[in-house]
Amino acid sequence: MEKLNITLYRFDPSCDDKPRMQGYDIESDGPLSVLQAIRHVYHKVDGTLSFRNSDCRRGVCGICSMMINGRRQLTCMCLATDGMTVEPPPNRTIVKDLVFETD
Amino acid sequence: MSDGRVDRTIETDVLVIGGGGGGLRAAVAAHDAGARVLVLSKGIVGKSGLTQTAVTGFQVAFGYADPRDNPEVHYGDTIRGGYGLADPELARIFCDEAIAAVEDIESFGARFDREEDGKLIQRKLDSSQTYPRSIKKGDSLGTPIMQALRREMNKREVPRMHEMLVTKLLKDGDRVCGAIALDFQKGEIVEIHAGAIIMATGGAGELFPVHSNTPDSTGDGYALALNAGADLVDIEFLLMLGHAVLHPATVRGVLFTFQYLLTKGAKPLFNSEGESFLSNYDPEGNDNPARHIYARAVYGEVREGRGSPHGGAFFDPGSVSHETLMDSLPSQTKYLEKFGVDMTQPIEVGAAAHYVCGGIKINTQSQSTVPGLFAVGECSGGPHGAGRIGGNSLTEILVFGKRAGAEAAAFANAGNTGSPSSDEVASEASRVTSYLSRERTGPRPNVIKTHLQKLMNDYVGVVRNDEGLRETITEFERIEREDLPTMSMAEDNRIGNYDWIEALEVTAMIRFARAMAGAALLRTESRGAHYREDYPELDDKNWLQNIVIHHSANQDALAFETRECTPGPEYTASLAEAG
Ligand SMILES: Cc1cc2nc3c(=O)[nH]c(=O)nc-3n(C[C@H](O)[C@H](O)[C@H](O)COP(=O)(O)OP(=O)(O)OC[C@H]3O[C@@H](n4cnc5c(N)ncnc54)[C@H](O)[C@@H]3O)c2cc1C
Ligand code: FES
To answer: Which residues contact B527 (CB under 8 A, 6 or more apart)?
Structure first.
């Protein structure tokens, strides 16, 4: 059993003044990619989180790209680590939380 | 909250539903035929779906690698690979037009691997191909195809809308005239009026817990078409592969396509007792059998208690060198290694759902049985029959994408526009918005999905039988009756609410799952991708038949009908050969 604490960006432009970071504890049978960890939070911990689930999971489409610990990376291609933070890329219009407008 | 209001209405000549390879090819062709086109996709148009993830190759009978190859031989392989159930006319078109389709996509700028003399490299993927025929681009064939199609879309400025989940097709009399979609980003209900519609919604791997597909492959298109009164055909043939990586969970379902690299005599898989076993399951005793046999063989070993810890078998790293892997499968190898798979050690591989061989029944114009409703790609049915040979899918999306686009444009340009009834629109809008006002007491969509996936895996997967299928169908009916009406979301927010998408997807998934299980129950034989342990033999005397499914008059019931199929001499000759 793996235990991780991860921190995700939360912002609902329709009612929040400003974004906040929210920490989550997750438990899983084995290692998760960052994308899987986000999905895990959504399904098992906090269903009010907005995220995108339509993805290639293979590093092909680039849609899952986000700031992981401040560095822009593909969330499907990185392992989730304890203490990590995940935020949308800078200068994007936020739809809600981890969903932002694409090019 | 659950009112019957739509937030926006849009008009177009041709509506393309799906932003993968088939959808984009059709959109470009419809535009070039003079129609106003709109592409909707529940993912990002051009960056969602399966096409971009395609790996290995596609079949086109140029005859470069072996001059004996030609479209006629390709046709024979397709008919044999479909175990006699492919629609001969559709298979013929697709083999005859494949060369032109590749020339088109090359003229759009796609580049494939070439020999030093400038000719396209053609490889033999497995025994289903008489001669080497498969064209490749490294181990990422989907990328150049999608890049080229995206470029053509941009050049023509074809309008598109991202993250729009189509939930219903609208009709005027017996023909389609539009659709309702949910806009994920805005949380709005959108009504689209269209002269013709092209379904290009891809496959349904997400019906199973382990699959090679993208998570948006929930089979919506099949359910949308069924609900609109269209026929589905051959959907009991669900191709399961047996060479997907099972462990670690980070890469579960990823295809590891080593079979194309094995040297003669290699025995790629072994069980927990260290024995190789593939040849025991192949009628011809092959150590590297046809791809659907892999899944059955691994399943058999697991059932006999000789499986790997995660329900599969072990790939023997001695059967392909690491150097060859890096050379021929660089993206796959690097990807797996990134997630900690040691490619020099045994790797756990096993069954994963891969491809729905049948789908929305089309004619030579790529039109379904509903006027104005066209279908292309994995969601369509007919060209493959009971099994799809490796590399025939990408060829199909290019050939029929072009046809569907041109034909749909002609249909729409002929002034065949209808208008939806306001009752139908309002009732769909209230069905979709009803989730926003439900008591939050029932299961979330993902809970129902997980249950559905387990049922599919246990009873509608690699091996099927009468009892399991019957129980599963009863359970699907119970889920539709009891669980779906109480299914509820974590919150009733409209914007970026994935539960809302998943609730609508799960509803479509159950409908399609019920149809697939029903067809599998009816087919009391084993053929191609469909295996019944209680009827393990191919039965040509009774089952050279396609199963066609449609909605009966009672909206919730499905009607299953069998239709005689006459595969022609290519199939009969192959039987005679097999003795
Ligand atoms: C890993 C992998 C490797 C493969 N390798 C090969 C290969 O080497 N050779 C080969 O021939 N074939 C291969 N295939 C099969 C082939 O890639 C697919 O069958 C084919 O690309 C499907 O194309 P498509 O256009 O029909 O659907 P997709 O490309 O899957 O596109 C479907 C689109 O429909 C959208 N959509 C779905 N439902 C809705 C809805 N309700 N509303 C709006 N939009 C919707 C999706 O978002 C997506 O944009 C492979 C498949 C996989 C998974
Ligand atoms: S999901 Fe496509 S690149 Fe990560």
So the answer is: B83, B85, B237, B386, B538, B539, B543
Which SS3 state, helix, strand or coil, does residue B361 take?
Answer: strand
Spatial contact of B106 and B114, defined as CB atoms under 8 Å apart:
no
The gap between the terminal CA atoms of chain A, to the nearest Å, is 39
Report the pLDDT averaged over residues B235-263: 93
Pocket test for ligand 1, best of B331, B394, B505 (most atoms within 8 A of CB): B394
Residue predicted with more confidence, A10 or B556? A10
d(CA B301, CA B296): 9
The answer to which of B76-80, B173-177, B415-419 has the lowest mean pLDDT is B415-419
Which of A30, A58, A95 comes nearest B53 by C-beta?
A: A58
- Is A95 close to B444, i.e. CB distance below 8 A? no
Of B248, B250, B496, the CB nearest to A50: B496
**What integer pLDDT is reported at residue B416 of this predicted model?**
67
Which residues 148-177 of B are in CB contact (within 8 Å) with A?
A: 162-163
Which ligand 2 atom sits nearest the alpha carbon of residue A77?
A: 4
Instruction: Band the pLDDT of B555: cuts 50, 70, 90.
Output: low
Could you give the angle at which helices B71-81 and B98-107 cross, rounded to 10 degrees?
Answer: 110
Q: How close, in Å, is residue A66 to chain B by CA atoms?
A: 16
- Give tens-digit pLDDT for B190-216: 999 999 999 999 999 999 999 999 999
B residues 216-255 lying closer than 8 A (beta carbon) to A: 216, 248-250, 254
ipTM of the complex: 0.97
* C-alpha of residue B138 to centroid of ligand 2, in Å: 19
DSSP B72-89: HHHHHHHHHHTTT-S-HH
B86 pLDDT above the threshold of 90? yes
- Number of other CB atoms surrounding residue B202 within 10 Å: 32
Q: Hey, what are B226's tokens?
A: 């069924």
